[in-house]
């Protein structure tokens, strides 16, 4: 009897404990913190970034069940900051990357290989992005990031002040090259003394493309292949007659005062109050004028200074990659899919919160209400689900698709240089090239003297070996 009483009491206690703890366990599961992805990208940290992040998280939680910690790092410190994160194994889930920076970190195992996902669960994402972009970001058969689905071949362009073009009744189609613009710059200098005829910065725009060449191993190395050269013959850019002529032209312009004296000190995003320029050099697609007009705050007319070719550099110019060590790869890939397929997510990332940062016109175009937040469009996924802005052609994205249909494809698209055995030479040569190139491409030094010094120093650093080894790799890849 006593044993029965003890057993009954034990059973009652167990039921009581179960009844008390079970709802608590369910409640704990229901209130478990959601996955929060750490997402890093480039750009100015906007005043309202946290507000946009919160609104975006509400949307992401409702539709996908996770949130993001959205961080923007300044243009001038981004690469050093991200490098520090990679080198110290800091926690992140998604990061913006590009070109050789993408290639080197993919090879070093920093980024997650996406092939399996893109072939199965992410097939819809794969189908959204132009196949030539996937070809460009492929590294020895592996895909380690999602390229921004945008114009395939950003082209170097002359960006002229529409006001001054109209004032002097200029037909800019008559001035297709930098050299041909010399009399116009002389006219602006004489008649508009407060205007900079040609504003340059320390940013290395892809002027090699303007000359008909593409880089073989990134813009930090002056080894190039001519567009359309099916043999893939590598040459030193500084030894080409086209680059030598360009450097001479820029130096002459600088001596005549056509180029701003502080060009070597200017960053890519330098802005000075009330500054006026007749011509700048930029890179963009078929609707560059409207976007640069917004950036500069005055109407721009744009004219191509090069030919549109899709290259490794252009296809790898903007990529979102997932950390190979991410604790949440499933959610990270869902986010990349949303950024490329969900218009509401994509437009919030780009424009902010409707009713706060923008409103829609009767034509369903974006009208900016506040400068408290703006995304950086080329860094954050599919352009073709973005709304157009007031002042832009409502058929803008149709024009981009038509443009993409006509661009030419490089014969080395998809080639990925292997620099593992060449790292020492690569670092030394790139350091020398960057040190000289800024001065040479702003015209501030005598190109004959400084180019000779640069070539001598690069040869001592091993550029000839680099060229020979990379040529062997290209030859094998083309077989």
Would you write up a description of this structure?
- With 479 residues, the chain is α/β, with parallel strands linked by helices.
- The chain contains 19 helices and 18 strands.
- The chain has a five-stranded mixed β-sheet, with helices on both faces. The chain has a four-stranded mixed β-sheet with strand order 8-12-7-13.
- Helix 14 (329-341) crosses helix 15 (343-351) and helix 17 runs antiparallel to helix 18 (447-461).
Could you outline the blueprint of secondary structure elements for this entry?
Blueprint: H1 2-30, E1 35-42, H2 49-63, E2 66-73, H3 78-87, E3 94-97, H4 99-107, H5 115-119, H6 123-128, H7 131-137, E4 138-139, E5 142-143, E6 146-147, E7 155-161, H8 162-167, H9 182-191, E8 196-199, H10 207-210, E9 213-215, E10 223-226, E11 234-236, H11 241-255, E12 277-284, H12 288-296, E13 300-304, E14 309-310, H13 312-315, E15 319-322, H14 329-341, H15 343-351, E16 358-360, E17 366-368, H16 396-406, E18 408-409, H17 423-440, H18 447-461, H19 463-478
Parallel strand pairs: 1-2, 1-3, 8-12, 14-18
Antiparallel strand pairs: 3-15, 4-5, 6-15, 7-12, 7-13, 9-10, 10-11, 16-17
